[in-house]
């Protein structure tokens, strides 16, 4: 297993980062929150989890060991694969996930694309005694009851792409009216990028 990767950040995309390690570029699939902390040309160390399939080897990178642990734990729930596990961590910080599971909060879990009411109930049932208690810190200034989680995701993706937090925040607010009741992150992100390119 590859426990962590340390190297210079060669590239950052919307859902992955490439770190150069010993002359080899390793692509790590990451959440927007993790990508927002990376800068091209800077050295970074990311805890990693490798998912092996018959036709692929995929490396997932994380902000810290806590996020990595949650990623691996949620996959022990029925029906949760690596992509859904990453979606959960893109929408919820580890402590938000712990609070939601501990308090039977299916509403918070169903904010994650791909998780319906039954899936949320199953995750709560299967993970309740495994995730542990909240460790008591919010990394991105979010709280478990933060409104409009899409704003955080779009903001972090924009910052990860190199925009300043101030410009990214203004773009997010500009596209907020387009969100509606069922915000589509990819569409809102594209719209925000258009807004920034016009500015």
From TrEMBL:
<dbReference type="InterPro" id="IPR036267">
    <property type="entry name" value="RuvA_C_sf"/>
</dbReference>
<dbReference type="GO" id="GO:0005524">
    <property type="term" value="F:ATP binding"/>
</dbReference>
<dbReference type="Pfam" id="PF07499">
    <property type="entry name" value="RuvA_C"/>
</dbReference>
<dbReference type="GO" id="GO:0009379">
    <property type="term" value="C:Holliday junction helicase complex"/>
</dbReference>
<dbReference type="GO" id="GO:0000400">
    <property type="term" value="F:four-way junction DNA binding"/>
</dbReference>
<keyword id="KW-0238">DNA-binding</keyword>
<dbReference type="GO" id="GO:0009378">
    <property type="term" value="F:four-way junction helicase activity"/>
</dbReference>
<dbReference type="InterPro" id="IPR003583">
    <property type="entry name" value="Hlx-hairpin-Hlx_DNA-bd_motif"/>
</dbReference>
<keyword id="KW-0963">Cytoplasm</keyword>
<comment type="subunit">
    <text>Homotetramer. Forms an RuvA(8)-RuvB(12)-Holliday junction (HJ) complex. HJ DNA is sandwiched between 2 RuvA tetramers; dsDNA enters through RuvA and exits via RuvB. An RuvB hexamer assembles on each DNA strand where it exits the tetramer. Each RuvB hexamer is contacted by two RuvA subunits (via domain III) on 2 adjacent RuvB subunits; this complex drives branch migration. In the full resolvosome a probable DNA-RuvA(4)-RuvB(12)-RuvC(2) complex forms which resolves the HJ.</text>
</comment>
<dbReference type="InterPro" id="IPR010994">
    <property type="entry name" value="RuvA_2-like"/>
</dbReference>
<dbReference type="InterPro" id="IPR013849">
    <property type="entry name" value="DNA_helicase_Holl-junc_RuvA_I"/>
</dbReference>
<dbReference type="Pfam" id="PF14520">
    <property type="entry name" value="HHH_5"/>
</dbReference>
<dbReference type="InterPro" id="IPR000085">
    <property type="entry name" value="RuvA"/>
</dbReference>
<dbReference type="GO" id="GO:0006310">
    <property type="term" value="P:DNA recombination"/>
</dbReference>
<comment type="similarity">
    <text>Belongs to the RuvA family.</text>
</comment>
<feature type="domain" description="Helix-hairpin-helix DNA-binding motif class 1">
    <location>
        <begin position="107"/>
        <end position="126"/>
    </location>
</feature>
<dbReference type="InterPro" id="IPR011114">
    <property type="entry name" value="RuvA_C"/>
</dbReference>
<comment type="function">
    <text>The RuvA-RuvB-RuvC complex processes Holliday junction (HJ) DNA during genetic recombination and DNA repair, while the RuvA-RuvB complex plays an important role in the rescue of blocked DNA replication forks via replication fork reversal (RFR). RuvA specifically binds to HJ cruciform DNA, conferring on it an open structure. The RuvB hexamer acts as an ATP-dependent pump, pulling dsDNA into and through the RuvAB complex. HJ branch migration allows RuvC to scan DNA until it finds its consensus sequence, where it cleaves and resolves the cruciform DNA.</text>
</comment>
<feature type="domain" description="Helix-hairpin-helix DNA-binding motif class 1">
    <location>
        <begin position="72"/>
        <end position="91"/>
    </location>
</feature>
<protein>
    <recommendedName>
        <fullName>Holliday junction branch migration complex subunit RuvA</fullName>
    </recommendedName>
</protein>
<dbReference type="GO" id="GO:0006281">
    <property type="term" value="P:DNA repair"/>
</dbReference>
<feature type="region of interest" description="Domain III">
    <location>
        <begin position="146"/>
        <end position="199"/>
    </location>
</feature>
<keyword id="KW-0227">DNA damage</keyword>
<dbReference type="Pfam" id="PF01330">
    <property type="entry name" value="RuvA_N"/>
</dbReference>
<dbReference type="GO" id="GO:0005737">
    <property type="term" value="C:cytoplasm"/>
</dbReference>
<keyword id="KW-0234">DNA repair</keyword>
<dbReference type="GO" id="GO:0048476">
    <property type="term" value="C:Holliday junction resolvase complex"/>
</dbReference>
<dbReference type="InterPro" id="IPR012340">
    <property type="entry name" value="NA-bd_OB-fold"/>
</dbReference>
<keyword id="KW-0233">DNA recombination</keyword>
């Amino acid at each position: 297993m590859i426990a962590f990767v340390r190297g210079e950040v060669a590239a950052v995309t919307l859902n992955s980062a490439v770190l150069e390690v010993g002359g080899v570029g390793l692509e790590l699939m990451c959440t927007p929150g993790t990508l927002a902390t990376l800068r091209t040309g800077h050295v970074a160390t990311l805890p990693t989890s490798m998912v092996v399939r018959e036709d692929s080897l995929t490396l997932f990178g994380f902000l810290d060991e806590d996020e990595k642990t949650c990623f691996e734990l949620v996959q022990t729930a029925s029906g949760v694969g690596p992509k859904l596990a990453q979606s959960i961590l893109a929408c919820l910080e580890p402590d938000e996930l712990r609070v939601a599971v501990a308090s039977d909060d299916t509403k918070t879990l169903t904010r994650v694309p791909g998780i319906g009411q039954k899936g949320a109930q199953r995750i709560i049932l299967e993970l309740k005694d495994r995730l542990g208690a909240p460790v008591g810190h919010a990394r991105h200034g979010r709280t478990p009851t933060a409104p409009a989680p899409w704003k955080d995701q779009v903001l972090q993706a924009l910052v990860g792409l190199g925009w300043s937090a101030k410009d990214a925040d203004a773009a997010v607010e500009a596209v907020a009216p387009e969100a509606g009741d069922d915000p589509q992150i990819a569409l809102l992100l594209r719209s925000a990028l258009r807004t920034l390119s016009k500015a």
